[in-house]
Amino acid sequence: MTMRxxxxxxGVAPGAPDTEVKAAWRRLVLESHPxxxxxxxxxxxxxxxxxxxxxxxxxxxxxxxxAQAAGKRSTGTAYDRTAAPPMSAGxxxxxxxxxxxxxxxxxxxxQRHVSAVRQSLQDAQRAAQTAIDRGEELAQLRxxxxxxxxxxxxxxxxxxxxxxxxxxxxQGADASWAKYRDWGLPxxxxxxxxxxxxxxxxxxxxxxxxxxxxxxxxxxxxxxxxELTFAADPDLFERADCFAFLGSAGWxxxxxxxxxxxxxxxxxxxxxGNPDISAPLGGAFSAEPGYWxxxxxxxxxxxxxxxxKPYPDAFDLVLARLESTQGRSFDxxxxxxxxxxxxxxxxxARAAGLQAVxxxxxxxxxxxxxxxxxxxxxxxxxxxxxxx
Length: 388
Prior knowledge:
alpha/beta, Helix Hairpins, Rossmann fold, 2 domains, four-stranded mixed sheet, 14 helices
């Protein structure tokens, strides 16, 4: 079916400025929102949904044409969902285990990017900071933030709740929220949930009266009674019988060897607040707690307690936060997880019963390879988009 003239749908002239087009789109979306048709019955809701879909498609087409005319390109394609049947809880756990196996196979590939980190993570961070300070990368960051800001604002207009779920456990949700605010994103504190939140919520049941050591030389300590820290307890590896791995900044081979020695004693628990294997860092990739934990598993046979994406605690925490702040329940199938990682964002969303949207405009798949990796690991998103 041929799309109607998008400008006619929005009621604006082809030469109208972007601000006028955007204002018209927002006004029409509000006027035709399905929630306003609830009282008029199912047929009215269906008609409102169709109208909203038509308006959004028209606005997207106008933006696409204008971006193309300016020499830019931003497209999204629906992924074939026939290859992604619903998963049972057993299937989800099988996928989770398969994802860990697949993550291990990625270590060799990522080691090319993190060799400098393995020798000296602090040197790599200083080099990354220098790269971030370059004007070109700052411009890219500003551009991404502008897109994110517009997306969040558009969601607010359509009364779509937005929550950020991050695996950044080193400093926690407060630090992540401050960073987003510095970037100019319209995010409130209650809209940010971190994997550290899930770990801290589980501490009373998992830890009990054990001696807990928070790991991560630059990580913020947990603040629990009797906690062992790098600053105050140089012999924490010998004294602790439970480790909470929060952040890898400052982590090195010497610390890894001490951790593996401690875990080899047996009857020692390892809680991991960031399951990520690696993350983009200044044009390279960092080695995250998930990477070091996989090495510890291989060396000692320890079975860690994982918190954060793709594990269910973090997603349950997000849904609970949404219901608390929005004052209503949410149908999981109408909640979408948007992220750039198959083995954390997309796998976690599928296992939690959410819609899954894979971003490929930056991160691991910025140079391509998303479809090949999907076929290799079997973790299938509902949608693939370059950017929002």
